[in-house]
Amino acid sequence: MWCDTPYALDHSSGGTIRETDSILEDIRDFSCDFVEITGGEPLEQEPCIPFMTRLCDEGYTVAVETGGHVDISPVDTRVIRIMDMKCPGSGMMKRNRYANIDFLTARDEVKFVIADETDYLWAAEKIRRYELPTRCGGVLLSPVFGAISSAALAGWILRDRLPVRMQLQMHKFIWDPAARGV
Known about the structure:
CATH superfamily: Aldolase class I
Number of domains: 1
CATH topology: TIM Barrel
Structural class: alpha/beta
Largest sheet: 6 strands, parallel
Radius of gyration: 17 Å
C-alpha cells in the first residue's frame, strides 16, 4: 500500500529482464555518480545485492529503498539503506522487520509514510523507543499523497520537536502523480 511504483509489483504487466552490464551502460550514459535502486522491493531480487556492491566498487554512491521486511544485513555497508517502517494506516505493520534496526548505520535512513495523526503518534513512539536519530543518518516522515496535508504533518513535527526531516514525493508535484518512470 502507498508504493510509489505499484506497477513494479505486478510481474504480469511487462517489464524487461536485463543483464547487469546492460544496466551499467545506461547508468554510465547518465554521467552521474549517485544511483538509487527502488521500485517494488529490490532486496527480493537476488542479483540486486551483488549489483549494488559492483556499483560501489566502480565508485558510485549507491542507495537502496527497501520496504523493511527483508533482511538488510547482506547489503554492502557502503550502500545507503533507506528503510521503511510501516505505520498502522498502511495495513502492513506486521511486515516490519524490527531486527533490521540493529543493522542501521550513520549512512542509513528510516522512513515512515504517514496517513493520519494515529500513524504520526505511532511513528514518534518508534522513533523514540529505538532511538532512531542516533542509530542512523536520518529519520524521514512523509505524508501519504492526497491523504493528509503537508502542513498538518509539519505542524505535528514542530509541536513535538521531533528530530526528523519531512519528505514530500516531489515527483508527484512536478509531474502527474500517476506518471511512470519519473
